[in-house]
Amino acid sequence: MSTDYDVIVIGAGHNALVSAAYFAQAGRRVVVFERRRMVGGAVGTTETIPGYRFDVGGSAHILIRTTPIVEELRLEQFGLDYIDLDPMFSGVRLDEEPVHFYRDAERTAHEFESRFPSQGEAYHRFHERWLPFGELVRELFLSVPGPFSLGRKLLFDRSFGRDWRDALATILRPYGDALPADLTESRITTPMLWMAAQSGPPPLEPMSAPFLLWHPMYHVGGAARPRGGSGMLTIALAEHIAAHGGEIHTDAAVDEIVVRDGRAAGVRVGRDVYTARAVLSGAHAHETFHRLLPEEFVPGRLRRSRVGNGFGAMLRVALRRPVQYAEPIGPVVRNGLQLVCRDVDQINTAYGDYLAGRPSVDPPLVAMTFSEVDPTLAPDGHEVLFLWGQYYPYELSSGRSWDDIADDVEDSMLNAFERFAPGTRDNIVGTLFQHPVWLERELGLLRGNVMHLEMSLDQMFLMRPGLGSGLYRGPVKDLFLTGASTHPGGGIMGASGRNAATVVLKSLDRRRFW
Q1: In the CATH scheme, what architecture does the domain 308-448 have?
Q2: What's the Cα-to-Cα distance from 259 to each of 289, 359, 416, 478, rounded to whole Å?
Q3: For residues 266-279, b (16+ Cβ closer than 10 Å) or e, as one string?
Q4: What pLDDT was estimated at residue 513?
Q5: Which residues of the chain are under the pLDDT cut of 70?
Q6: pLDDT value at residue 154
Q7: Do 58 and 33 touch, CB atoms closer than 8 A?
Q8: What's the CATH number for 5-43+230-306+452-513?
């Protein structure tokens, strides 16, 4: 039976677009249907305030730099121009000189040693000890997960030698307890722990150590920004797809995955039905299983994946002049991520507020002033400031709504930052506050979780989004999955899209051969 396409892709988030780009590059007939007016999902950029370009989702491009996606798809030919951030990130405290983490691990360790004797050497040992683990995890992220993948690789990977038992003992700890005993300087360890917290779990979460032990990979891939905004990645992907004969339709919400004779045969968009040999859903797992797929085809186990109760919030600020940090913080921090976090207790206290159903009273922040390295984001002499804070619950215990408290929480975040950069408030042109309900309403991030599903060990690898669908395959034949709901989870990486494309292309090739 003839079909309209080889593959129909639901959604134009960055993972879905990565998959579609690989399909188009392989010569497949591919179409993408996206409900919004623009591509990108949570990786997009808009001129929200005239003259100022705000990202609407993820801003720091770190994980994708550890993948071959940009090179394999030759995205620089389609307008993607990365600006390296160096230092990648800096630890910021009141009345103290910041500590800088550079792309070059040796330079970072040397600077630490000059300021904190013995600590640079301890950092270097940590880097060398766990770099093989980071490389191993990257290999796992860039492959379809198999049973006991991590444990098997730890057992047989030669880079760990006879130390695999000690390594495993560390890996099973909370990341707050996974630092080596000789790395004691909190001005170094606090930024490391705050970066580990960006995946969601708090420092005391059992078996969360890999979020910290991945740290050496920052020095491998570095951190970068697409010139023109985060959304230039997804625009380049869309240009790639079009150049290879693929189609993208925006303002085209998929209403149903059409199942015929036990297989996904296409989708319904309004009154129109489009058929394909395979359907790939890049939508949130709950959107796919609870709304798009007829109920009789969804096993109960796939309806129980945990979304969680929100996660973080982002405040986008347009300023008349660049952020000016108080001395002795200085201007160097403005190049990369500014990790505004006092100590690990501040992270744990913020998480305690979250568990109690209230916004963090004293939020640790990640500040980003990317107009420092990319003047296309703001008028000359002006600034865009992004403030990311954790932890902010979607459901509030007070009985009030986010629409009721949004202004107060925005003020709280600005007040927290103003202590480090006095005068910021006086130069505000406009703001956009992306609280958990906004993230759900505008970006489809259910319950405000930017990772789609909780990033706990029982929802990772083969178990993401649920047992039986951890191989990028849905519960009916010819239905496939990608996106943050699948392995390896959230973040601007694209590994899920690349892995899913491999699975789909193999399936199509196998049927063509037979």
Answers
A1: Alpha-Beta Complex (3.90)
A2: 13, 43, 52, 10
A3: bbebeeeebbbbbb
A4: 43
A5: 1, 147-164, 511-514
A6: 54
A7: no
A8: 3.50.50.60
At residue 492, what are phi and psi to the nearest 5 degrees? Answer: -85, 90
Count of residues making up the chain:
514
Alpha carbons 214 and 131: distance in angstroms, whole number = 8
For the entire predicted model, the pTM comes to 0.95
CATH 3.50.50.60 positions along the chain are 5-43+230-306+452-513
How distant, in Å, are the alpha carbons of 314, 361, 383, 393, 402 from that of 409?
A: 11, 9, 22, 12, 9
Residues of the chain with CATH 3.90.660: 308-448
The 3 state secondary structure assigned to 115-130 is HCCCHHHHHHHHHHHH
**Residue in the block written with tokens 């609870």:** 290
Residues in a beta bridge with 393: 310
Query: Per 3-state DSSP, what percentage of the chain is helix, strand, and coil (rounded to 5)?
Result: 40, 20, 40
Q: Which two tokens stand for residue 341?
A: 């976090």
Helix (H) or strand (E) holding 391: strand 383-393
Reported as a single tens digit per residue, the pLDDT across 388-430 is: 999 999 999 988 999 999 999 999 999 999 999 999 999 999 9
CA 397 from centroid of its chain's CA atoms: 27
Cis check for the bond before 210: say yes or no (omega within 30 of 0). Answer: no
- The number of beta carbons lying within 10 Å of the beta carbon of residue 210 is 21
**Residue 421, token pair as written in the block:** 């950069």
345: left (phi over 0), alpha (psi -120 to 50) or beta: alpha
pLDDT confidence of residue 300: 78
